[in-house]
Specification:
Order of helices and strands: EHEEHEHHEHEEHEEEEHEEH
Radius of gyration: 19 Å
Oligomer: single chain
Number of helices: 8
Strand content: 25-35%
Largest sheet: 5 strands, antiparallel
Helix content: 25-40%
Low-confidence stretches: none
Structural class: alpha+beta
Mean pLDDT: 89
Number of strands: 13
């Protein structure tokens, strides 16, 4: 019997729902902890969905390359493409790709040396670690007030991404989750902090989430998402972007794994249906 395999790090509720839904359809589906992939028998596997790997380990890139090579040798399809997955998880590489593809992104600088921070022009910025993280891993600052936390991040990682801090007057960003080109769920995520200068938007930490029906997606947003889907090449992704006071759309980041905190429109079921369709 052919099967679907999901490679995971932590086992979150969204994965459990994908698994339950697939089994109700009579499909065998296994979720495998990434450290167990060397022991797992992939016989009869048709498709592998790479949800998360152990990105906090120094071997993160090696994990992804190894998994890709192994599954390619076995003629097993992978969702999402491991190379694109890695680019999108790495905020510095994704910034380079977004620039190459012509997307509007906040002004960005790759920082490798403390002296670069000292030469920033006046303004508001946000510092990000090179690997993706929740909003608690980003640090807002002004050019005149670079915190020791940013210096420590640079010392720890060797390089960080600094971007111009762009805000929405109403203190929210957009998140659109896509499966195989279809907008499955869309919401606006409001700032969870009270800082008027640096609103940090994240529903996981208590920010209000305003859910919008995919049917009501504004035309400019739909066109924006379609362009991203066509150029990036991820079958399953979450797109974070912001619309400023001049109604300009700014691409912030693309998450190559599903949103584990939200299930407003049957998102897990859509993922399961897509994986099943590849069998």
């Amino acid at each position: 019997m052919s099967k679907v395999v999901i490679i995971r790090d932590e086992k979150h509720p969204l994965l459990e729902q994908i698994e339950r839904y697939a089994k109700k359809q009579g499909v065998k589906i296994d979720t495998v902890y990434w450290k167990e992939t060397t022991l797992y028998n992939f016989k009869d596997t048709t498709v592998v969905f790479m949800d998360r790997m152990g990105e906090l380990y120094n071997t993160y890139e090696t994990q992804i390359i190894w998994l890709n090579e192994m599954l390619n040798d076995m003629n097993i399809q992978i969702v999402n493409d491991p190379q694109i997955y890695f680019w999108m998880r790495n905020k510095i590489l994704s910034y380079i790709k977004f620039t190459e593809m012509g997307f509007d992104i906040p002004k960005s600088i790759v920082i490798t040396n403390k002296r670069q921070l000292e030469t920033l022009s006046s303004g508001k910025y946000i510092a990000k670690p090179y690997l993706g993280t929740c909003s608690d891993g980003v640090i807002p600052f002004t050019a005149k007030n670079v915190s020791e936390d940013i210096i420590d991040m640079l010392k720890r990682d060797g390089m960080i991404l600094v971007q111009e801090f762009i805000t929405n007057p109403d203190r929210y960003i957009w998140r659109v989750d896509v499966v195989n080109g279809e907008i499955v769920q869309i919401n606006q995520r409001y700032a969870y902090n009270c800082d008027e200068q640096f609103p940090i938007c994240n529903g996981t930490y208590g920010g209000k989430i305003n859910v919008i029906s995919p049917m009501d997606t504004p035309k400019d947003v739909r066109n924006f998402i379609n362009s991203i889907y066509e150029k990036i090449g991820l079958e399953i992704m979450g797109v974070d972007f912001l619309i400023d006071e001049n109604q300009k759309l700014w691409l912030l980041e693309i998450n190559p794994e599903p949103d584990i905190t939200c299930d407003f429109k049957g998102f897990p079921n859509k993922i399961a249906d897509y994986l099943i369709s590849l069998m």
